[in-house]
Amino acid sequence: MKKILITFAIAVLSIASASAINLQEAFTALSNLPNVTIKENLDLKDLTNNKCPIKLDSLKIAQVAIGYDLNAEKIAVTGNGAYTILNQIPFQYMINGANNNNVCAFLYSTPYEGHTGLNHLLIAVMSGEWGTVCFVDAIVEDKEKDAIQAASVEIKGNNLNMVIPNYFNITIN
Questions:
Q1: What are 165's strand-pairing partners?
Q2: Comparing C-alpha atoms, which of 171, 73, 54 is closest to residue 121?
């Protein structure tokens, strides 16, 4: 019986590993969801003007993909697609986040290949009430990643607040 359970566990882990994706693949998939587009030439210091509830102070942004003013049907399709993609990212990559199915923020990080002291960062923020999804693909230094990982997240109903002093804020209210 024990051999059967171990064999089954190995099979499940093999299948799960085969479906895992990295952060760049995840961003590409998220940006291709229905109702989401990559935004070019944004003033990236304050994305709140573009319906993305992230105020950035110092992130090096690679790309931003946003869907906003989505009605209930569109936010359900886009949100469920996003959850499907995010569930393929290995759990150990998540460094912070919160979710109550009304509002969520997920932050993932991995070392940036070939660059000591830099990390790839994927931020996913969604609000059912606002009808908004926002995905940010960025590069951060170790000290920024550590600050993100140590930040507290407050979530109440449809409100979410995460403040990383000197770096960025995520505020949905």
A1: none
A2: 54
The upper half-sphere exposure of residue 106, i.e. CA atoms within 13 Å in the direction of its Cβ, equals 25
The band of 49, judged by pLDDT with boundaries at 50, 70 and 90, is low
The Cβ-side half-sphere exposure at 78, using a 13 Å CA radius, reads 29
Q: What is the pLDDT of residue 43?
A: 59
- The runs of H, that is alpha helices, within 32-141 are 72-86
Q: What does the block give as tokens for 125?
A: 């923020």
Q: How far apart are CA 1 and CA 21, in angstroms?
A: 33
Torsion angle of the four alpha carbons 168, 40, 125, 112, in this order, in degrees rounded to the nearest 10: -70
Tokens at 128, concatenated: 């059912």
Residue 155 tokens read as 């979530």
- Strands 94-99 and 159-164 come out as unpaired
pTM: 0.83
What is the C-alpha to C-alpha distance for residues 113 and 139, in angstroms, rounded to an integer? 11
Q: Does residue 2 carry a pLDDT above 60?
A: no
